[in-house]
Specification:
single chain, 281 residues, Rossmann fold, seven-stranded mixed beta sheet, three-stranded mixed beta sheet, 10 helices, disordered C terminus
């Protein structure tokens, strides 16, 4: 796979990568000082090619897998999942080492079957997991499994632009059933409909009219699911990532079973939340 075929990413992706790097350094520093922790893993469910092209500078920049592989102190093992065969081959050649496993496949299957079982809390294992899809193609079962394990912290992208373009339309009758089913898989059940719309009695004959909820209302409902359904104890407010024209492309979530990680991420999120282009307008 040549560099000219790498994904070209905007400044919001570069900020996301910096957020991940800032937290990962602290995560490793803390866990490496805990003698009781026997194994610390890095998991990337949508690993991509490992590098990108910056739209801002035109230069090749390190993606999340490459940054994690170069981090010191290091993880005990790295699990990267990617569906594109060319990208898989690039990942395998990027940093050959015995503690790197690259899976070619769908992370919705691979993580549940191959990776998460190697990160059990009872075995004094911990993991940092990045779930960074391009679209709403992450299944809730993966998120809930991570939350129930109590050993995994996640960064997750809620692709709100994809949801708004294909599912959360003002005219609910125009939504393709396949798109609605995709949202249900991401959300975990049909309760996204209640979160995304509110019923008002409007008009001469008091007919119920569904009014589309704001982005903030939808992501807050998802945040509550991460806590109450998936079982993550700490889920700070996500950071909205905007494109150059202003609309939010996705919300970057963090979810964790421990207070220390939450405190660190809240500090990092606040640092970047007020950067130009990211704060709510």
């Amino acid at each position: 796979m040549s560099e000219e075929n790498l994904d070209k990413v905007g400044y919001w992706t570069e900020i996301k990568l910096q957020i991940l790097e800032d937290y990962t350094k602290e995560y490793l520093r803390i866990l490496r000082n805990q003698e009781s922790i026997r194994h610390v893993a890095y998991i990337d469910g949508f690993a991509g090619a490992g590098t990108h092209i910056s739209k801002t500078t035109g230069e090749v920049i390190s993606g999340s897998p490459k940054r994690a592989l170069e981090m010191q102190p290091a993880f005990d093992h790295y699990y990267l999942v990617e569906m594109n065969p060319e990208r898989v081959e690039r990942l395998r050649k990027m940093s050959p080492r015995p503690n790197l496993t690259v899976f070619e496949g769908d992370c919705n299957d691979v993580l549940l079957r191959e990776v998460f079982p190697k990160c059990r809390y009872q075995e004094y294992r911990r993991a940092l997991c990045l779930l960074d899809p391009y679209d709403l193609n992450l299944c809730w079962e993966v998120v809930e499994a991570a939350g129930k394990m109590g050993s995994i912290e996640i960064f997750l992208n809620f692709m709100i632009m994809d949801a708004n373009m294909n599912v959360l339309k003002r005219n609910t009758d125009s939504v393709n059933p396949d798109q609605a089913a995709r949202m249900t898989k991401f959300w975990g059940d049909e309760s996204w409909r209640t979160a995304a719309y509110r019923s008002d009695q409007l008009g001469l004959f008091d007919h119920d009219v569904l009014e589309k909820a704001t982005n903030e209302s939808v992501v807050e409902a998802y945040r509550e699911r991460l806590k109450k359904v998936a079982g993550f104890k700490f889920v700070p407010k996500p950071v909205p990532m905007r494109n150059t024209k202003g609309p939010v492309i996705y919300y970057l979530f963090f979810a964790s079973p421990n207070a220390t990680g939450n405190r660190i991420v809240e500090h990092i999120f606040d640092k970047y939340r007020n950067r130009a282009g990211l704060n709510e307008r």
